[in-house]
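Query structure, 420 C-alpha cells:
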C-alpha cells in the first residue's frame, strides 16, 4: 500500500483550487439511474470512490464515460440487483437503492456494513422506503425492497444523531417517481442534499424545501436527462484552510463556497485565524497567536464531523485546553492515538477529546484509519518537525483529488512512496 512521506515544518504558501464535492457527486451519480436518458455531470473529482461508483453503475447496466472531470451516464436498461461485493465495500453505494426503487419498483443491494467511524446503520433509509409502500426484507446479507406501487407519504427521518444525509437523498430520489406528494420532516440540510435536489429538479423532479428540515417532493411520471455541475467540496476547502493555519502559512483558496463553511470559519476565526475574501477567492493565514476553542460537531449548519479530526490538529498546536465533542459518529477518534505518536497530548472522555495543546509535534510513521483521520495526520505531518510517513494513502485517494500534487503546489515537501 502506498504511503505519503512528508517533510514537515514548511509553511504552506500559494493557491489551491477546490474540486467537486465527493459527498454530492456520489448520490448524484446514483440519481442518473432514475432516467433512461443521458446525464452529464461536471466538476467530478478524480477520486477512487467516484471510480468505484462508476463501476457499480456499469455493473447495473449503465454506460459510463469519464473524461477528465466530466462524467456521462446513460442508464437505458438497468437491473435492480447490485453486485454484492462491490456495494458492500463503499458506504456511499447505499444511495443506489432509492433510484432503483423509484425507477424499477425494486432494489436488491448488499448491506453496506459498519465501518471504522461507527456502526452506520441504514434503518432510517429503510423506514423511508417502507413509508412509501416498499416491502423490505433482509436476507443473506442483502436488503430487498419491492413495491407494487410507490405512494407519497409524510415521513420523519430524524434519528439518534439528528438527520441522515444519505438517507434523505435516498428517500428523496425514490419519491421523485412515486405517486403523489412526499413530505420528509427532519430532513438533512447539508449542501450536498441541496445539490442532489438541484440535479433532480434539472431532471424534471418537483422538489421544494431542500436545504431546510422539510422537503416536499411531488412525484412525476418520469425524469429526463440533465447537465449539472457539482458543488465544490466544503470539507476539502476546510482541510486546506486548516493546513494553512497549522503550518503558519498563507493560502489562497479558489473555487470554494464560503457560505457552506460558516461554522468552520467561525471557529477558526475564534481560534485566531485570519480568513479574508476577495471576490471568489479566500485567503487563510494566522492573524496572530492561536487561541484554544471548544468544538462540537453537529448536523449542518453546525460544525461538520468531517472536519473534526483536522480541527483537532490545529488545537493540538495551540497552547491551552480545547474540548472537541463528536456528536455524529460514536467512534470517530481513531486519529487520536496516531496524533499521540507525533507528540500530541489528547485524552478521550466519552464523546469528547480533551486536547492539551501547544506541545511541539515531531514526525513519525503513522497509520491512517479512515479518510478524515488521514487528512488530519497529513496536516499534523506538515506542521511537525522532521519526517512523517502516513501509511495507507488509499483512504486519502477516496476523498481528496490529487492531494499530494496540490500540497506540493503549496510548497510542501510531500512524496508518494509506492510500495514495492
Ligand atoms: N444513522 C442512523 N440510521 C440511518 C442512517 C444514519 O442511525 O439509517 C445515524 C448514523 O449512525 C450517524 C448519523 O445518523 O450517527 C448521521 O449519519 P448520516 O446518515 O448523516 O451519514 P451518511 O449519510 O452515511 C454522510 C457522508 C459522511 C459524513 C456524514 C455526516 C457520504 C458518502 N458520506 O454519511 O462522510 O460524515 O454524512 O455528515 O455522503 C466522509 O466524507 O469522510 C464521510 C464519512
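Result returned for the query:
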Amino acid at each position: 500500500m502506498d504511503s505519503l512521506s512528508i517533510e514537515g515544518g514548511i509553511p504552506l504558501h500559494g493557491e489551491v483550487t477546490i474540486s467537486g464535492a465527493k459527498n454530492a457527486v456520489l448520490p448524484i451519480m446514483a440519481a442518473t439511474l432514475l432516467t433512461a436518458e443521458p446525464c452529464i455531470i461536471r466538476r467530478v473529482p478524480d477520486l477512487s470512490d467516484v471510480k468505484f461508483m462508476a463501476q457499480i453503475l456499469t455493473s447495473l447496466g449503465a454506460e459510463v464515460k469519464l473524461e477528465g472531470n466530466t462524467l456521462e451516464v446513460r442508464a437505458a436498461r438497468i437491473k435492480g440487483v447490485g453486485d454484492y461485493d462491490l456495494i458492500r465495500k463503499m458506504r456511499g453505494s447505499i444511495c443506489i437503492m432509492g433510484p432503483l426503487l423509484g425507477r424499477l419498483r425494486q432494489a436488491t443491494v448488499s448491506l453496506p456494513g459498519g465501518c471504522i467511524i461507527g456502526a452506520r446503520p441504514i434503518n432510517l433509509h429503510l423506514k423511508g422506503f417502507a413509508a412509501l409502500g416498499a416491502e423490505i426484507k433482509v436476507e443473506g446479507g442483502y436488503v430487498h425492497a419491492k413495491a407494487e406501487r410507490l405512494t407519497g407519504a409524510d415521513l420523519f427521518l430524524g434519528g439518534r444523531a439528528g438527520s441522515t444525509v444519505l438517507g434523505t437523498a435516498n428517500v428523496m430520489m425514490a419519491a421523485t417517481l412515486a405517486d403523489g406528494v412526499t413530505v420528509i420532516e427532519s430532513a438533512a440540510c447539508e449542501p450536498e442534499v441541496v445539490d442532489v435536489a438541484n440535479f433532480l429538479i434539472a431532471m424534471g423532479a418537483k422538489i421544494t424545501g431542500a436545504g431546510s428540515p422539510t422537503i416536499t417532493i411531488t412525484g412525476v411520471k418520469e425524469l429526463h436527462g440533465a447537465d449539472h455541475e457539482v458543488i465544490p467540496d466544503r470539507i476539502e476547502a476546510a482541510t486546506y484552510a486548516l493546513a494553512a493555519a497549522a503550518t503558519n502559512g498563507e493560502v489562497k483558496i479558489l473555487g470554494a463556497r464560503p457560505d457552506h463553511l460558516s461554522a468552520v470559519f467561525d471557529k477558526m476565526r475564534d481560534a485566531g485565524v485570519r480568513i479574508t475574501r476577495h471576490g471568489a477567492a479566500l485567503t487563510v493565514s494566522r492573524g496572530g497567536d492561536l487561541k484554544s476553542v471548544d468544538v462540537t460537531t453537529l448536523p449542518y449548519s453546525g460544525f461538520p464531523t468531517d472536519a473534526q479530526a483536522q480541527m483537532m490538529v490545529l488545537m493540538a498546536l495551540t497552547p491551552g485546553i480545547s474540548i472537541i465533542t463528536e456528536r455524529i459518529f460514536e467512534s470517530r477518534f481513531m486519529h487520536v492515538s496516531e496524533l499521540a505518536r507525533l507528540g500530541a497530548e489528547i485524552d478521550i472522555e466519552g464523546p469528547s477529546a480533551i486536547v492539551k495543546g501547544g506541545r511541539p509535534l515531531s514526525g513519525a510513521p503513522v497509520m491512517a484509519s479512515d479518510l478524515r483521520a488521514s487528512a488530519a495526520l497529513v496536516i499534523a505531518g506538515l506542521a511537525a518537525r522532521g519526517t512523517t510517513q502516513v501509511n495507507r494513502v488509499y483512504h486519502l485517494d477516496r476523498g481528496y483529488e490529487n492531494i499530494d500534487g496540490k500540497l506540493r503546489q503549496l510548497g510542501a515537501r510531500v512524496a508518494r512512496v509506492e510500495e514495492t
